[in-house]
């Protein structure tokens, strides 16, 4: 998870700088600056204090954001089941709300938006690849998929491959995708409602349209594909077409 790694690296670098400032040589320099009443002493001490605050901020954010790591591992897994991804989605959204509520230094909305984008991107990837791993035969039109590894099967998950499946099977795939994506949005609004009522000063006030661009785009694609497959399914149930007005069969050309 890039954001956790960023804060871990940031905290590590700041801790190393603090260690250097606490070394014997650095303390001697500070003492000389203080005794000689150097004009740089006050500025240097102010920077040292800011460094300490920044290190504490990074360490705090690492602790809180690390609670999201296990959920993102599931969201980005190639072998997670639909039930596992659904559960991880709800838990990740709820945990993110708790982090925002309790973390004293995690207060920048753009960073929060990036995390929601990351969840959405992971779910879109799951929609495109997850079912391909479990059901490669559905995506290749073959009755046996013993020659397809999960990595190979992942390449076939596209709207073209969905349209090559049987309509009922394609609709089942799309329904799973819609369930996954709408669960994420429902979990967000539920978490937002709880957070805004329990902690008004830390309420989520970002524009929701900026949180789900890829999710909404994928939902639109799924709805379009479902419409096409439903039409194919409807036409496939017709036994035949008869044209001939009131005489029907006797005048039919079909």
Walkthrough of the structure:
This protein is mainly alpha-helical and 254 residues long. The chain has two domains: 1-72; 76-254. It is built from eleven helices and no strands. Helix 1 packs antiparallel against helix 3 and helix 5 (82-102) packs antiparallel against helix 6 (109-134). The longest helix has 32 residues, at 167-198. The termini are far apart. Mean pLDDT is 80; it is low at 130-157.
Task: Give me some keywords for this one.
single chain, mainly alpha, 2 domains, 72% helix
Q: Secondary-structure blueprint of this entry?
A:
Blueprint: H1 2-21, H2 24-35, H3 41-65, H4 69-75, H5 82-102, H6 109-134, H7 136-140, H8 150-154, H9 159-163, H10 167-198, H11 213-236
Helix pairs in contact: 1-3, 4-5, 5-6, 5-10, 6-10, 6-11, 10-11
